[in-house]
Every structure is written in C-alpha cells, then in structure tokens.
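FAQ

Q: What does a record look like?
A: Structure on top, sequence underneath. For example:
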C-alpha cells in the first residue's frame, strides 16, 4: 500500500513552487518592467533637456525681439546702399566720375560678365577672374525680373559685374582713384591692379579690374545716369576733359 506525501514533503513542494513563481515573475515581469522604466526615464531626461534648451532659446528670442527693429533698420539702410541693378551706362558713368575726380586718364573700359554672390540668404563663392571669363548669369527669378521690387533679405539676389579699365596717371592720381572707388556708397571694389612705370613721363599705366555690386530686390529705385554731358572721343573714350 502506497503512502501519501508527508506534510514536510508537501511543504517543500509548496516552497519550491513559490520560489519558481517568484523567479518567473522576476524574469518575465519585473525585469521587463524595469527595462521599460529605464527606457522611459532616458526618454524623459531627453525631453527635459529639450524643454530646457527651448526655454533658454525663448529667453534669447525675447531679448533679441527688443533689438530686432533696430537691427532691421540697420540692415535696410545697408542693403539700400547698393543699386538694385548695375547697367553698363551706370558703370561707365561711375568710371567717368572716378576719372574726373582723381585725374587719371582712362583709355578703355572692358565690361565683363555678371555673376551672383548672394542668393537665398547665402553668400556664394565669388571668383572675379573666373567671372570675367565665364558665362553671364541667366535672369530667371521674379526678383531678378523686377529688381526694384522690395523683398526680404532671404529673397534678394546679389550680383557682381567685373569691369577692366585701361588707365594711366601719377601715383597720387592712381591712389586717389582707388580711394574714390572704396569710398563710394554704391560698393565698388578694386579686384586687381596691374601697372608699370614709364620713366619718360613719370606716370603709371596698366589695368584696373573693378567689381560693381548690385542687389536685386532691395527696394532702391534705379535712376538712369545722365551721360549726355560725357564727351566721347576716339583715342580716349571720354574725350578731352577738365578736372573739377
């Protein structure tokens, strides 16, 4: 006759079953939940950092909003110093004024091509030498078709045109011509100056490469220069002139 389990044996089985249940609960439920909790804590800390960063940025935005109108006014004043477009008539007129005010003698002006230096709010790489030999910029966008229209800075298109000028003059006259270009409100820049000295005349002669800058969309109305008083000669493109 078989004997049943003793009380101690039953107690041991219950204890083992309880331990097994605890182990299963730990591995399959508690540990898995702890991993979820850890993941949630990590994500919570990440979002807290993002909130703190955005809060800091909001403080900076609030501070910048106080001075934004002043900066906008300064930016508008600066962009309006550029002509909305640079025509050959305007470029030739500027060369003539430079010659009259400095005393240099200009014998030829070689217009180059137009290239972009600003588009979609980004400054582009500008190589004057490459622009002089490259293809002209194609006009396509609305602001390029209507350069006098006022648009935001991000929509403006900046363009530079290279002109090579043959000239001669004394050192003082050459330096005065360079200063005239640098100080002009229309933002012209000397890109290259190649001169040789003639001992017989005591003057320098050679070429000056000038970049003329324009800003399509800055809202500045284009004013056609009056070139009716500029004399046109044969050996000198401006003829005989008297310094003011």
């Amino acid at each position: 006759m078989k004997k049943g389990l003793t009380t101690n044996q039953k107690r041991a089985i219950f204890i083992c079953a309880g331990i097994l249940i605890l182990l299963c609960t730990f591995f399959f439920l508690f540990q898995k939940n702890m991993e979820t909790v850890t993941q949630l804590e990590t994500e919570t800390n990440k979002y807290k950092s993002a909130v703190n960063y955005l809060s800091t940025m909001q403080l900076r935005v609030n501070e910048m909003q106080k001075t934004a109108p002043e900066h906008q006014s300064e930016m508008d004043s600066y962009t309006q110093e550029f002509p909305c477009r640079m025509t050959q008539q305007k470029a030739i007129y500027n060369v003539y004024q430079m010659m009259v005010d400095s005393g240099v003698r200009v014998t030829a002006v070689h217009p180059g091509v137009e290239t972009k230096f600003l588009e979609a709010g980004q400054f582009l790489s500008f190589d004057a030498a490459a622009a002089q030999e490259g293809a002209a910029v194609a006009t396509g966008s609305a602001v390029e078709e209507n350069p006098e229209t006022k648009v935001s800075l991000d929509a403006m298109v900046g363009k530079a045109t290279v002109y090579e000028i043959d000239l001669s003059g004394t050192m003082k006259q050459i330096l005065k011509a360079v200063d005239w270009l640098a100080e002009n409100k229309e933002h012209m820049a000397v890109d290259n100056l190649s001169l040789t000295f003639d001992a017989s005349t005591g003057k320098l002669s050679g070429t000056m490469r000038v970049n003329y800058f324009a800003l399509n969309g800055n809202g500045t109305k284009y004013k056609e220069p009056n070139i009716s008083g500029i004399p046109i000669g044969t050996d000198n493109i401006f003829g005989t002139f008297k310094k003011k």
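Q: Is there anything notable about this one?
A: The mean pLDDT is 80.
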